[in-house]
């Protein structure tokens, strides 16, 4: 995983959004590899009685699969921790502080407290939503569908009433 750039005066330049997204994509791929390694280890264990392969070969293959699993798990854990630290630095999430903190990054109980503004730190969700007309368009489309269904129901009810009356003439009660 790339590290932030250090300038000549010793200060750090934070990752760009594109770099963060690339890092998350790499973590996603690593999780896929993690699942493959776990599946391979389970497959080797399940195939124990079905194959005539020597026990030593199966044991070696299982150890290789578990080593791959553990190393990938470590890299995923490290990558996710880095992403959390980046979110903390950007004050998008706020670390919960406790007195008996054993782990300085997770607040002792392994949980992070969401920011004061509804879990989004300094992001204003209303502002973000107003920049995208998608929410309004989706709501409008939903209302048009409901209105169409309602009007079709009214129209169907009128047709049924006309059929019940026959030719449309009303009797005068004579």
Automatic annotation (TrEMBL):
Q: Where is it chiefly localized?
A: nucleus
Q: Which domain of life is it from?
A: Eukaryota
Q: Which residues form the signal peptide?
A: none
Give a yes or no for keyword Nucleotidyltransferase in this entry: no
Which GO CC annotations does the UniProt entry carry?
mediator complex
Q: Name one GO biological process term.
A: regulation of transcription by RNA polymerase II
Subcellular localization(s) per the UniProt record:
Nucleus
Q: Does the keyword Transcription apply?
A: yes
Q: Which Pfam families match?
A: Med11 (PF10280)
Recall the GO molecular function terms of this protein's record. Answer: transcription coregulator activity
| UniProt keyword annotations, A-Z | Activator, Nucleus, Transcription, Transcription regulation
Region Disordered: list its residue ranges: 96-116
Q: Which InterPro entries match?
A: Mediator_Med11
Family, according to the entry, reads as follows: Belongs to the Mediator complex subunit 11 family.
Known partners and oligomeric status: Component of the Mediator complex.
Quote the function comment for this protein: Component of the Mediator complex, a coactivator involved in the regulated transcription of nearly all RNA polymerase II-dependent genes. Mediator functions as a bridge to convey information from gene-specific regulatory proteins to the basal RNA polymerase II transcription machinery. Mediator is recruited to promoters by direct interactions with regulatory proteins and serves as a scaffold for the assembly of a functional pre-initiation complex with RNA polymerase II and the general transcription factors.
Q: What is this protein called?
A: Mediator of RNA polymerase II transcription subunit 11
Q: What is the lineage of its organism?
A: Eukaryota, Fungi, Dikarya, Ascomycota, Pezizomycotina
